[in-house]
Amino acid sequence: MNVALTNKIILSVIIFFSSLAALPAALANQSSLLINTWDTLSNNVSQTWNEPQHYDLYVPAITWHARFAYDKEKTDRYNERPWGIGFGQTRWDENGNWHGLYLMAFKDSYNKWEPIGGYGWEKIWRPLADDNFHLGLGYTLGATARDNWKYIPVPVILPLASVGYGPATFQMTYIPGTYNNGNVYFAWLRFQF
């Protein structure tokens, strides 16, 4: 075997075992990140539960099935008027960001009742001189249950976006999916009182 090839093999082995030696530290960093994320989330949920600043009325407004992801005969049958109602509580943090706990029920695509509840967070921007106007981007974590799934609770992690003025906010999410499944835009009005 030539010397150059032997040196490359030895160097590769050294790099491989050096990577393995660094693995516990990398895993510890990931573990620490997960623990910190969980602590932040649980503290925010707990604080929002224990220290609400406002209560909210949720009014489902629209469900839209992305036409590019569905057969027309399916979308023709689906309900896109999600009648329902929900209630929640809001906390605004020291950075002006929104934290909310909510429970909502609405008519799903099959016109059956679907409950959803959870925690939501949005980073809020106030781009105009008028502080009442606000935009938000964030996420929600929670659970839902559907008739076509025999009302077995299913966890959800979804994006959130909003535009609002004063106590009224138009909030929305997008449920990703595959062809003829998911790919739904869902929006509601949230009134703070």
UniProtKB/TrEMBL annotation:
<dbReference type="InterPro" id="IPR009746">
    <property type="entry name" value="LipidA_acyl_PagP"/>
</dbReference>
<keyword id="KW-0808">Transferase</keyword>
<feature type="signal peptide">
    <location>
        <begin position="1"/>
        <end position="28"/>
    </location>
</feature>
<dbReference type="GO" id="GO:0016746">
    <property type="term" value="F:acyltransferase activity"/>
</dbReference>
<feature type="site" description="Role in the phospholipid gating">
    <location>
        <position position="179"/>
    </location>
</feature>
<feature type="active site">
    <location>
        <position position="108"/>
    </location>
</feature>
<feature type="site" description="Role in lipopolysaccharide recognition">
    <location>
        <position position="74"/>
    </location>
</feature>
<dbReference type="InterPro" id="IPR011250">
    <property type="entry name" value="OMP/PagP_B-barrel"/>
</dbReference>
<comment type="subunit">
    <text>Homodimer.</text>
</comment>
<feature type="active site">
    <location>
        <position position="65"/>
    </location>
</feature>
<keyword id="KW-0732">Signal</keyword>
<keyword id="KW-0472">Membrane</keyword>
<protein>
    <recommendedName>
        <fullName>Lipid A acyltransferase PagP</fullName>
        <ecNumber>2.3.1.251</ecNumber>
    </recommendedName>
</protein>
<dbReference type="Pfam" id="PF07017">
    <property type="entry name" value="PagP"/>
</dbReference>
<keyword id="KW-0998">Cell outer membrane</keyword>
<comment type="similarity">
    <text>Belongs to the lipid A palmitoyltransferase family.</text>
</comment>
<feature type="active site">
    <location>
        <position position="109"/>
    </location>
</feature>
<keyword id="KW-0012">Acyltransferase</keyword>
<comment type="function">
    <text>Transfers a fatty acid residue from the sn-1 position of a phospholipid to the N-linked hydroxyfatty acid chain on the proximal unit of lipid A or its precursors.</text>
</comment>
